[in-house]
Write a structure and sequence with these properties.
Length: 251
């Protein structure tokens, strides 16, 4: 299966301590390389990376990451990375023909999160989102989270940062189909800004946005300095194949 990593954004909430968020280090490995390696560990063979802000630095680092992970990694530069993240999906997944995994460069996932998507239902003519029911977890930033309200059958009813009520949080990991790109384009044509969540809401309105519950699996969105500290403190425990025998140091 192919995968797309979104790595084009400004990373404004972390920029005071890390000028290029995807290259932020957790004990010697960047967030972007962790994402690539974790995708490779569940069988992904080709990874597209949507680049924009600091694209030169990211694209220069990709060949080494690809060699170490043993997968093909290709940069897909976003023309205007000041636009919402749906534009990164359109640029990065434009030539994907079937189901693909979609993750964010600043999210760190333990392998069970990705396996839940791969072992769950196919995206079909829609998308499957990994969700976490632990909405009060200290690893979830309520000021930045994307919330999800689900129906009894697990389909998404509503998704967004300001929705109420909600019963889950969006983990930032998807099993998507080309229908997601069509939904983002349609939302933009109807006047939406072009976010991934707007495309997901359009699929949800049509009954084509499903979920998989990750249960107790570990993940974290490294969006600010506090979450970066938590990630550095916990990553070795939850990603032992990458960090279990490493000497853990803080840059």
């Amino acid at each position: 299966m192919d995968a797309l990593i979104l790595a084009a954004g400004f990373g404004s909430r972390l920029r005071d301590v890390e000028p290029c968020k995807p290259l932020t280090q957790l004990h010697g490995l960047s967030l972007l390389e962790i994402a690539i390696r974790q995708l490779a560990s569940v069988g992904v063979t080709c990874v597209a990376v949507a680049t924009g802000h600091e694209a030169g630095a990211l694209e220069a680092a990709l060949p080494g990451m690809a060699e170490r992970a043993g997968v093909v990694v290709e940069a897909r530069r976003v023309a205007d990375y000041s636009q919402p993240n749906g534009y990164s999906v359109l640029a990065g997944a434009a030539d994907f023909a079937g189901d693909f995994l979609l993750v964010m460069a600043d999210h760190v996932f333990s392998r069970p999160v990705l396996r839940a998507l791969l072992d769950g239902p196919p995206a079909g003519n829609g998308t499957v989102l990994a969700i976490d029911r632990r909405v009060t977890s200290p690893l979830v930033d309520p000021d930045d989270a994307t919330w999800v309200q689900t129906g009894e059958d697990g389909r998404i009813l509503h998704i967004g940062k300001t929705i109420r009520p909600y019963d889950a949080v969006d983990c930032g990991a998807f099993r998507a189909s080309p229908a997601l790109l069509e939904a983002i384009r349609a939302a933009i044509q109807d006047g939406a800004a072009g976010s991934l969540s707007e495309g997901m809401q359009r699929l949800a309105d049509e009954g084509r946005a499903q979920t998989v519950d990750i249960g107790e699996a570990w993940w974290i969105d490294v969006d600010d300095a506090h979450m970066l500290d938590l990630a550095r403190a916990q990553v070795a425990q939850h990603l032992p194949d990458l960090f279990g025998t490493a000497q853990l140091v803080t840059p």
